[in-house]
Write a structure and sequence with these properties.
Blueprint lengths: L1 E2 L4 E5 L11 E2 L4 H11 L8 H9 L5 E4 L4 E3 L2 H20 L3 H5 L1
Parallel strand pairs: 2-4, 3-5
Antiparallel strand pairs: 1-2, 4-5
Helix pairs in contact: 2-3
Length: 104
C-alpha cells in the first residue's frame, strides 16, 4: 500500500531484516534484507520478481515502512531498484534464464 501524501510505501516483508535495529534508518537496508533472504528464503522467488519491485520504485517513495526490521527514510526508489537487482541475480542463478526477456 502506498500513502501518497507522505510518500510512504508499506513494504510488508520486502526488506525483512534480522536483529533489533532502530525504528527508522537512513543506512543500507538492501544488504540486511538479502542476508535475511539467504537465511530464511522467505520470498516467492520467481523470474518476474525484479520487474514487479521496479514497478514499486516508480512511486518514488520517501519512506519504506518495513514490517520486520528498520523502516527506511531516503531514496526509496533507489533502494527498491537495488533490491530488484538482487532478486534478479538470485532468480537468474536459480532459473538460469534471462530475466529481462521474461518480463517483456
Amino acid at each position: 500500500m502506498y500513502e501518497e501524501s507522505t510518500g510512504t510505501l508499506l513494504c510488508g516483508d520486502l526488506f525483512t531484516q534480522v536483529g533489533n535495529g532502530p525504528a527508522l534508518t537512513q543506512a543500507d537496508i538492501v544488504g540486511p534484507a538479502m542476508q535475511a533472504e539467504d537465511l530464511f528464503q522467505y520470498s516467492s522467488l520467481n523470474p518476474g520478481m525484479g520487474t514487479t519491485i521496479r514497478a514499486l520504485a516508480d512511486l518514488a517513495p520517501r519512506t519504506l515502512a518495513v514490517m520486520h526490521g528498520s523502516s527506511y527514510a531516503g531514496d526509496g526508489a533507489a533502494a527498491l531498484r537495488a533490491l530488484a537487482d538482487e532478486y534478479d541475480r538470485l532468480a537468474l542463478a536459480r532459473f538460469e534464464m534471462p530475466l529481462r526477456a521474461v518480463a517483456a
